[in-house]
Write a structure and sequence with these properties.
This protein has twelve helices and 20 strands. By secondary structure, the chain is an alpha/beta fold. The chain has a domain of about 110 residues. The strands form three sheets. It has a 15-stranded parallel β-sheet with strand order 1-2-3-5-7-8-10-12-14-15-16-17-18-19-20. The protein has a three-stranded parallel β-sheet with strand order 9-11-13. A two-stranded parallel sheet has the order 4-6. Helix 7 packs across helix 8. The termini are far apart.
Length: about 425
């Protein structure tokens, strides 16, 4: 009919939508896929004919043995990957393997990646297999993580690009091997050693910034640029820092909650704390320090600026004393933790003297965070009120706490009603 308009044709957008990723060059697609797990990368092979073999060109392999049906399938998959990369780069290799001896040729796999400019190598192998000597001369390696493997004895170690080393349950012929590994990493910044069989490990580095050791590892650290030492202590001090500077952060935890600490150990720890500006400490050691101070002179940590400490509810009675010991404290994170089990004494509530106002609350404290990994405890609002009413310089109070919907409404109502000594204080409830 004349004058009748035709209805516009409705197109199926999904059927005509362009596949822009497939239009990219293969090397860009491989770069995108390198950020996925190997399992997800292989799944892309069913998308189309073009994608069928693209997974083989991704410059990285991340596999776990237990995701394969059997040993033969796992070994075949890995070797197929290496065969497809005979002339290309392999930047990352992560192998988590639990195999009987002789079922795979780990040496040839390590050899394959070291000749193809590997940057990130992560090997967890059980039972322990020896890493081949060729690894010690890898010029491109940046991040090395070895778990439950054996290190071969080496005459010479050279890692000109190595920045991160993580060693866990490692076997090696002697302490010298491990020390060569560290000293041969000329730009090393981050070192983690867990469950080391070494009696005392000498760590010397002019570039090292962070060290993480567990309670079973004893180290002597000579690192002038050290920024952070994280360790756990059982009953003896397992570290010694040469040239400990103000910029070094100490993170001291405990190996076992029922460990006993002598006065000499606490004295040594106090000596270290008095020389740093940043401290993270467990409630068990903090309580030992508090008890130690009751029998001696008043503690003073004149240089401490940042403190993160654990407290149980019964530990809160030492809070004013601890804060008074830190006259220049600027940042304080208080984490409420579970009350320790008491075998020989009954649990009791803390008697906190909130009437005392430490100097740092008046002159320096700018940031406070209260967080808890336990249910709400009695006295929480009183603790919040203590900081808000007495902190003259406070800029931010962050409350990392959990409440049910109804309880949170009551909590916020009480919180808003608390007067603030600092008009610039921002209160954030997470």
């Amino acid at each position: 009919m004349v004058g009748r308009k035709k209805k516009p044709k409705i197109c199926d957008k999904e059927s005509h939508e362009e596949d822009r990723i497939s239009q990219l060059p293969e090397h860009l697609i491989s770069e995108i896929l390198s950020h996925l797990s190997t399992k997800d990368v292989v799944r892309t092979s069913v998308l189309s004919t073009r994608w069928r073999n693209l997974w083989q060109w991704v410059p990285g392999l991340d596999v776990e043995f237990n995701t394969f049906s059997d040993t033969k399938t796992f070994v075949s998959f890995v070797e197929r990957f290496f065969d497809s990369h005979r002339e290309s780069l392999i930047r990352k290799l992560r192998l988590n393997i639990c195999l009987p001896y002789g079922k795979c040729d780990l040496n040839s796999w390590i050899d394959a990646v070291t000749t193809r400019r590997i940057q990130n190598l992560d090997v967890n192998f059980f039972p322990a297999n020896e890493i081949p000597l060729i690894i010690y001369a890898c010029k491109t390696l940046v991040h090395l993580r070895l778990v439950r493997v054996a290190l071969a004895d080496a005459e010479f170690v050279s890692f000109p690009c190595m920045k991160i080393i993580h060693l866990e349950e490692i076997r090696y012929p002697n302490e010298t091997t491990l020390q060569k590994l560290i000293s041969g990493s000329s730009v090393l910044e981050d070192l983690t050693i867990i469950r080391s069989p070494a009696k005392v490990l000498q760590v010397r580095s002019h570039t090292l910034k962070r060290v993480d050791i567990d309670e079973s590892t004893e180290v002597v650290i000579d690192a002038p640029l050290l920024q952070c030492l994280r360790t756990k202590i059982i009953s003896t001090k397992n570290y010694k820092i040469i040239n400990l500077g103000f910029s070094t952060k100490l993170d001291i935890g405990i190996g076992f909650s029922n460990a006993t600490y002598g006065k000499s150990l606490i004295h040594d720890i106090l000596t270290d704390i008095s020389r740093v500006r940043d401290l993270v400490i467990s409630n068990v050691i903090l309580k030992e320090i508090f008890l130690y101070s009751n029998s001696g002179p008043v503690l003073q940590f004149q240089d401490l600026r940042r403190l993160k400490a654990e407290f149980s509810q019964s530990d809160l009675e030492m809070l004013p004393t601890i804060l008074e010991s830190c006259p220049k404290l600027e940042s304080f994170i208080l984490e409420m933790v579970k009350e320790p089990s008491m075998r020989h004494e009954e649990k009791r509530e803390a008697h906190v003297m909130f009437s005392a106002v430490p100097r740092c609350l008046v002159s320096s404290l700018k940031f406070v965070e209260l967080k808890r990994s336990i249910p709400r405890y009695e006295g929480e609002m009183e603790l919040i009120r203590y900081f808000l009413k007495n902190s003259t310089m406070l800029e931010k109070l962050r409350l990392n706490v959990y409440y049910t919907k109804k309880a949170k409404c009551d909590f916020l109502t009480q919180l808003v009603a608390i007067p603030r000594c600092s008009t610039a204080c921002e209160v954030i409830v997470l």
